[in-house]
Structures are given as C-alpha cells and as structure tokens.
Amino acid sequence: MFYPITRLRRLRLNQNIRDLIKETEITLNDLIYPMFIIPGKSKSEEIESMPGIFRHSIDNALKEISEIVELGIKAILLFGIPEKKDNIATGAYSKKGIIQNAVKSIKKEFKDLIVITDLCLCEYTDHGHCGVIHDGYVDNDETLELLSLTALSHAEAGADIIAPSDMMDGRVAKIREVLDDNEFLNIIIMSYSAKYASAFYGPFRDAAKSAPSFGDRKSYQMNPPNIREAIREIEQDIEEGADIIMVKPALCYLDVISAVREEFNHPLAAYSVSGEYSMVKAASKMGWIDEQKIVLEMLTSIKRAGADIIITYFAKQIAKSMSK
Q1: Rounded to an integer, what is the distance from CA 35 to the centroid of its chain?
Q2: Is residue 104 annotated as a catalytic residue, yes or no?
Q3: Per-residue pLDDT tens for 205-218?
C-alpha cells in the first residue's frame, strides 16, 4: 500500500522512535585505535598533518593507552618508527625492536587489551618501500622471508593479532606456516587483503616517516578502479589462513566493502585512513562542518556497508562522546 495509507514519516517522528528502529549503530566493540610508537623516553610528538594524533615513546604510549582503556576501547593497532633504517628493514624483525619492546610493555600492564601489530617493512627501510629492492623492484619472495621473521618476533613479544599490510603475494600462507611451526597456533592474522594504492595515505606517511624515496607502490598495492580484483585478493588470503580480512581505505571504497560482505562470511575490517581523518579535521578547523556529526555519519556508513570492525583515528573521540 502507498500514501496516504503508508506514511513512512511516522517512524521518524521523534528521537526515541528513530532509536527504536535504528538499523546500524556504532559501538566501542567495533573500534580499533591506531598508535605510532617512537624510540626514547617521555616523548610525544603531535603529527602536524593529523591534529590530535601523536607519536609516543613507549612510556607515554602507556599513559594514552590507560586513557583509552578507561574509555572502553578494547583494541589498538601499533606502528613502529625505528631509530635507524636500512635497506633490509633490520629493525622490523629485531627481537629488541621498537614494536617488540612496546608489545611487551603494553601486555605487561594491560593484559586484556587486544594488541594488534601492523606487519610491513616500509617504516623500517631506508628507501620507504614495503620489501626488499632488487633493480628498482620489490622482490616478492625474498620479502616474504623477512615478513615471516617479523611476524614471529611480534608473536614472541605477545601480540594478539598480526596484521600484514605489505600486499605481497603469499604472505598470509608464509606467516601462518611460520607461526604454526613455532606453536603460535592461536595468533590471529588480520590481513590487509584489499589495500589500494590510494592518495589518502599522505598524512600517514608523514606520521610514520615512510614515504617511498623513489617511485610509488602501485606495483604491489591495488589499482583503485578495480573491485573484482579485490574479491580475488581476499579469496586468496582466506584460503591461505587469514582469520580477519580488511579493505583499506574505507570511505571511497564502501562499494568494495559491500561487495566483500556479500561474497564472504569472514569477519571484515575497514581502515578509515589518515586522509579521511585529516580532511575532517581541516574542514572542522575552518568551521565548515559539525565535526562530531560528520565523524559519526562516516563511521556509520562504513558499518552499514558491511564492516564488522573499523580502524579509525577517531576512536578515542567517539569513545569520549559515548561516555557523556
């Protein structure tokens, strides 16, 4: 039946009715908060292109983690920035590396917090690419060896979830094999399965000091126009043992998130990336938008598209608003 028998506006009459039939809702259980860890003590550096986000030394990171745990956030994603870099990313898999030390310290103090470690070499290489370079090209198979060493070192340090973000072919299978061979059967792999070569990563590369010194990452990260390729990438990661799959970025790839949700039943994460964060912050600073409403609308769209998990720099801000 149609109007006047059916009046859809009845269900929008007031806030309580709208809340009663709400189809999609953001909760703290959905959110992962990314953090950047640097060497030293008592150091916190605000990232100019990401207002409100900091690079912390481990001791200062523990202070912020205490705050987010108090707010009810249950998971963090760690990125490390080493003191020294080289062409084979030695700092990534050193047992005394920045992330390895951070994980040990965090798990000692916050045993129930889910600690996720980003697994990539770009922050640790002096050339800024995500693997071993030969003749200007990232060598896939040689990179797998270093990724598996890094994954093992993260597991030994106490990470709960390891998140490979490099987009090398076969990395999930190699990491799963090494973890299982070393009796880390219960370590979860959250794979950046469909990670696009996006222009939205600029502020992150500033934050992590990981911009490529030459060329770009288009030979290993996905081509933004492609969606069928994303399905193939994710299918392969699932077959290789990924426990959680991911689409990155989120906002301009809601169609990809939706298509992946239709195709697969695996837990699905989406990464609302630095460029998405910084655009909102810049527009808010100019007074052009209502920041809090925009953030909630953005994150709701990501969940509505099909994501179960949202990695976002707004996690702490959302948690604070929920606690009021």
Answers
A1: 10
A2: no
A3: 888 888 888 888 88
For the question of whether the overall pTM of this predicted structure is more than 0.85, the answer is yes
* Structural domains for the chain: 25-322 (3.20.20.70)
Q: What is the pLDDT at residue 136?
A: 87
- Per-residue confidence (pLDDT) for residue 215, from 0 to 100: 83
Give me 114's structure tokens: 């889910």
List, for the chain, all residue ranges whose pLDDT scores fall below the cut of 70: 1
Q: What is the 3-state secondary structure (H, E, C) of the chain?
A: CCCCCCCHHHHHCCHHHHHHCCCCCCCHHHEEEEEEEECCCCCEEECCCCCCCEEEEHHHHHHHHHHHHHHCCCEEEEEECCCCCECCCHHHHCCCCHHHHHHHHHHHHCCCCEEEEEECCCCCECCCCCCEEECCEEEHHHHHHHHHHHHHHHHHHCCCEEEECCCCCCHHHHHHHHHHHCCCCCCEEEEEEEEECCHHHHHHHHHHCCCCCCCCCCCCCECCCCCHHHHHHHHHHHHHCCCEEEEECCHHHHHHHHHHHHHCCCCEEEEECHHHHHHHHHHHHCCCCCHHHHHHHHHHHHHHHCCCEEEECCHHHHHHHHCC
| Distance of alpha carbon 239 from alpha carbon 12, whole angstroms | 44
Q: Check residue 164 and give its pLDDT.
A: 96
For residue range 110-145, what is the model confidence (pLDDT) as tens digits?
A: 999 999 999 999 999 999 888 899 988 899 999 999
Determine which one of 85, 174, 248, 281 is catalytic. 248
Distance (Å, rounded) from C-alpha 213 to C-alpha 229? 28
Instruction: Extract the tokens encoding 234.
Output: 């994710």
CA distances from 234 to 70, 171, 229 (A): 35, 12, 9
**Closest residue by Cα to residue 149 from 220, 204, 73, 88:** 88
Which is the catalytic residue, given 174, 195, 303, 316?
195
Contact between 152 and 92 (Cβ < 8 Å): no
